[in-house]
Amino acid sequence: xxxxxxxMYYTNLLCENSNVILDDYPPLPSNPTNAKKSxxxxxxxxxxxxxxxxxxxxxxxxxxxxxxxxxSQFCExxxxxxxxxKETTTERSTKSLSNRWSCIQKATNSFxxxxxxxxxxxxxxxxxxxxxxxxxxxxxxxEKCIFLFEHCWKLxxxxxxxxxxxxxxxxxxxxxxxxxxxxxxxQNETExxxxxxxxxxxxxxxxxxxxxxxxxxxxxxxxxxxxxxLEESLAQEKELYRLxxxxxxxxxKAEEERLRLQxxxxxxxxKAEEERMRLQTEKLxxxxxxxxxxxxxxxxRIMMMDVSGMPEIQRLYFVELQKEIIMRRSPA
Length: 332
Description:
Blueprint: H1 46-60, E1 69-70, H2 71-85, H3 94-120, H4 128-143, H5 150-156, H6 160-163, H7 183-192, E2 194-195, H8 203-304, H9 312-329
Antiparallel strand pairs: 1-2
Helix pairs in contact: 1-2, 1-5, 3-4
Domain No apical meristem-associated C-terminal: 147-325
Protein name: No apical meristem-associated C-terminal domain-containing protein
Keywords: Coiled coil
């Protein structure tokens, strides 16, 4: 009986966002005896591709049926599973499913090889999506066409059986027909040939791989978190440096403005002081003029006095004043 983990089958892959490396799983036989006719010219949809991958995984990784399956049995199981779970009315024959799987397997193998080369470069600072994009470019350069089966690759890439494989498919032994071998006998031998599929890993190994996968995911999360924190720290330092530069520029302009205003004030104060001194000088000049005029008027009054009728002492006083005025006014 199937284990509880396998009870849901690999149709669950259609609802998961899982990632693989295609390898030694043999392609479906291209010409089974019970192949059904298909409608030619109708392309496979994404859902049909995903269902085909799920069907293949469900039967190739099954703990009971995963090994010692004959070509005819294996193809029939794939076909029946596909027919049972398909959601379209398009009819697909065993041969069309076989051809489609061969295309998926070949393209995905090539893409995985490109992705492995990208990952071996160990480039820092690039995300998983960056690696996938680089692998697509490498694939297009290598195959001269774009990679059309990313949806299939996402279903296969994280399956433990596929992760543990390399990208080199094992070569199946081909039987060289002897002169006495007839086409019918070769066909019977092909139908009875056993597909050598590896038996799926046991529960303990699966748990160990799952645990290691979780640990790897945790390590990747921690590294991503550290990288994110580092980026944030660098961004904060950059922003702090920018703010400091802006503050320095602002302080510089503020200081220049302060010095300009200070110079303007000093110039204004200088001119104001000059004006004050001019006004003070003018005031003193006017006062001097007034004093001079007052003295002149006083002298005129003294000079105009009639001293003849004054008492003798008063007359002598004013006569002396008149003599002093005449002496000051007379040229030297």
